[in-house]
């Protein structure tokens, strides 16, 4: 994955420390966050006149209409943008050096990188139709590579145009109401010789609670982890997050995560997100399984348990 170089301009920013997690200020963006610009930086941008409470993003569960597993060919796959509708006669190829992704989860949540920022949105889909709400996103400004800012704006607009979709082999096309393809994606694939932990998007199934017991993740609460390019990123229940993650053989070290600051109205989701973002910092090693990943501390105690989806 290619990341944008740090912005050298002076920026004013504030940040607060909350239970071991760095919460991003709504005022501005630290320059250091741009190291992770493709993954996560900035603050949530809400539609005009709304805040996190009014937007309804944090209702419980994450979405009220989960999509049945296995019914949609677009779900559970990380799609990488190939071309997009720029409003001109021909579709534009993606800006070299940028990475734009989309992942549709069966809970009715889609998320990914828009090239500079992280974004997420609610969506509804059937075997051929799709409707995507206006995305919520972080608020970084990226000037490199050249054209990435305008590409991001058009991409987020094109998501809202989607009315139907078509999957042809390893490619996904999102089409507007006139049947015109506005976005073309290819399926992300991990190298076969890459480490087990790098080959999947992992879904949390259980974690160690405050009393030291391993408890199942509440039904309908989406928590994911993707290890790539010495980072771990994903969705923590209400917020997107990213953290430096250094993997050497079976050893792993995860530093303090950066997370967006959407407030979770649901106490169960809020508490699990808090605990999850604490536990990932306590990890010292991982234990791979056929379709599972267990993260443990230095005493070998299980902290987080993940599974895969087919």
What does this structure look like?
With 310 residues, the chain is mainly beta. The chain folds into two domains: 25-187, Lipocalin (Beta Barrel), CATH 2.40.128.270; 196-307, Lipocalin (Beta Barrel), CATH 2.40.128. Helices cover 10% and strands 35% of the residues. Strand 11 and strand 12 (181-187) form a beta hairpin.
Sequence-ordered SSE layout with sheet pairings:
Layout: E1 15-18, E2 21-24, H1 52-55, E3 78-84, E4 92-93, E5 101-104, E6 109-113, E7 118-125, E8 130-132, E9 136-137, H2 148-161, E10 164-168, E11 171-175, E12 181-187, E13 201-208, E14 214-216, E15 224-228, E16 231-235, E17 240-248, E18 251-254, E19 258-259, H3 267-279, E20 285-288, E21 292-296, E22 302-307
Parallel strand pairs: 2-19
Antiparallel strand pairs: 1-2, 3-4, 3-5, 3-12, 5-6, 6-7, 7-8, 7-9, 10-11, 11-12, 13-14, 13-15, 13-22, 15-16, 16-17, 17-18, 17-19, 20-21, 21-22
List the main descriptive attributes of the protein structure presented here.
twelve-stranded mixed beta sheet; globular; 2 domains; disordered N terminus; Lipocalin; 310 residues; mainly beta; 10% helix; single chain
Give a summary of the structure in a few sentences.
This protein is mainly β. The protein has helices at residues 52-55, 148-161, 267-279; strands at residues 15-18, 21-24, 78-84, 92-93, 101-104, 109-113, 118-125, 130-132, 136-137, 164-168, 171-175, 181-187, 201-208, 214-216, 224-228, 231-235, 240-248, 251-254, 258-259, 285-288, 292-296, 302-307. Strand 7 (118-125) and strand 8 (130-132) form a beta hairpin.
């Amino acid at each position: 994955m290619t990341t944008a170089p740090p912005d050298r301009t002076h920026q004013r920013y504030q940040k607060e420390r909350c239970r071991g997690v760095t919460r991003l200020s709504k005022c501005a963006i630290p320059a250091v966050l741009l190291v992770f610009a493709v993954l996560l930086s900035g603050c949530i941008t809400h539609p005009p006149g709304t805040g996190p409470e009014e937007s309804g993003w944090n209702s419980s569960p994450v979405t009220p209409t989960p999509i049945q597993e296995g019914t949609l060919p677009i779900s559970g796959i990380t799609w990488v943008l190939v071309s997009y509708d720029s409003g001109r006669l021909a579709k534009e190829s993606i800006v070299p050096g940028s990475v734009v992704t989309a992942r549709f989860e069966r809970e009715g949540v889609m998320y990914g990188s828009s090239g500079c920022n992280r974004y997420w949105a609610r969506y509804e889909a059937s075997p051929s139709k799709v409707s995507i709400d206006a995305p919520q996103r972080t608020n970084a400004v990226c000037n490199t590579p050249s054209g990435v800012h305008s590409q991001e704006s058009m991409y987020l607009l094109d998501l809202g145009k989607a009315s139907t979709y078509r999957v042809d082999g390893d490619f996904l096309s999102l089409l507007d109401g006139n049947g015109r393809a506005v976005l073309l994606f290819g399926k992300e694939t991990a190298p076969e010789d890459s480490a087990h932990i790098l080959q999947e998007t992992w879904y949390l199934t259980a974690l160690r609670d405050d009393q030291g017991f391993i408890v199942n993740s509440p039904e309908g609460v989406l928590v994911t982890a993707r290890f790539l390019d010495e980072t771990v990123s994903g969705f923590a229940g209400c917020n997107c997050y990213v953290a430096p993650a250094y993997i050497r053989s079976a050893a792993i070290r995860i530093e303090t995560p950066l997370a967006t600051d959407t407030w979770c109205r649901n106490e169960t989701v809020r508490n699990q997100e808090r605990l999850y973002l604490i536990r990932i910092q306590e990890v010292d090693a991982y234990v791979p399984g056929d379709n599972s990943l267990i993260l443990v501390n230095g005493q070998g105690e299980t902290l987080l348990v993940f599974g895969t989806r087919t």
